[in-house]
Amino acid sequence: MIKLFIFFILIVCSPLLYSSEDCSIGKHCELEGVLNLRFTPPELTASLSIRNDDCMPLAFEPSFYEKHKESNGERVEVRGIAYSALSAENLVTYEVKGRHVDTLCNSELVLFVSDIKVITE
User: Fold this and answer.
1) What is the domain range of residue 44?
2) pLDDT at 89 over 80
């Protein structure tokens, strides 16, 4: 019960807990990078490769993956709200507000994507 309460506090209060130079928790962010879609059992997850080895986990509505699977590997611009990412030993994926997120990026943030567009330039 205590673990569930701590998880709830982290998710609900995450906009107030941490910040980063590029995006801050609870703020609207706009990022560019390469979209990586992958099947991380038990669900499809996504991340954005930003530069070198940096990446940001992305949280999409479940319907996104089927509609945008052809965008995998494309350079994209994403917009959304940043939340605190979870990390724990042996945790590979988790669900927040109906969206699946993986822990493969070493990031304190996860971006709940509201808009995405492929960069064609």
Assistant:
1) 2-118
2) no
